[in-house]
Amino acid sequence: TLLLDPLPGTQGFTFLWSTGSSEPALLIDSGGVYALTVSNSICQSTDSIEVLLGSTPEAVVIIGEASLCQGSTAVLNTSAGTGVSVEWTGPSSFSFTGSTLVLQDIQPTQAGSYIATPFNNGCPGPSDTVLLSVGLSPQINLGPDLAVCNGSSVTLDPVEGSSAGLSFSWSTGSTDTSITVSQPGVYTVVVSDGGL
């Protein structure tokens, strides 16, 4: 219930609510538009208010991949019900309203906790949190196209420096950190870091 009480003092005034009540204050238990006319036998004023009564929404659950590679797209959905809005907060004062959060071209600076809170007409419900991690994409470079003489070979090593923690998948089927080739062709490699 909610008490609508428009004036601190009621002496010398008459009240007429849109509900038909002539009481100075109105106790309501349902939403809607409530109008009030107050007069002092000479002048009168009218005002109205829309009251939205909400109920506490059910807890939301965040669904989506929480471990991503730099440059990919994060898509986080919630289980919010009909008529429930979801407000998101995150790192660096991030905020967004909507049941689905999409972060394109995600960067390591966007990693951190994202909180989704459901609201029903201003009434908050239990929130859910996801810890988003963003891995750096390995920096690889096979160099420019090469011309190799008959009987010669060349070693293709895509990573400068340490390749610790990286996994390799070459178009030849090799999983070595580098390969030596003597045949013409196009060679490709996929390098991943920590399974991301």
| N-C termini distance | 52 Å
Strand content: 35-45%
Poorly predicted runs are none
How many strands, what sense, and barrel or not for the largest sheet? Answer: 6 strands, mixed
Outline: rod-shaped
Average pLDDT across residues?
89
Protein described:
With 196 residues, the chain is mainly β. 0% of the residues lie in helices and 43% in strands. The chain is built from no helices and 18 strands. It has strands at 2-4, 14-17, 26-28, 32-39, 44-51, 62-63, 67-69, 74-78, 85-90, 94-97, 100-103, 112-120, 123-124, 128-135, 154-156, 166-170, 179-181, 189-193. A hairpin with a 4-residue loop joins strand 4 (32-39) and strand 5 (44-51). The mean pLDDT is 89.
Features of the shown structure:
single chain; 196 residues; mainly beta; 6-stranded mixed beta sheet; 3-stranded antiparallel beta sheet; 18 strands; 0% helix; 43% strand
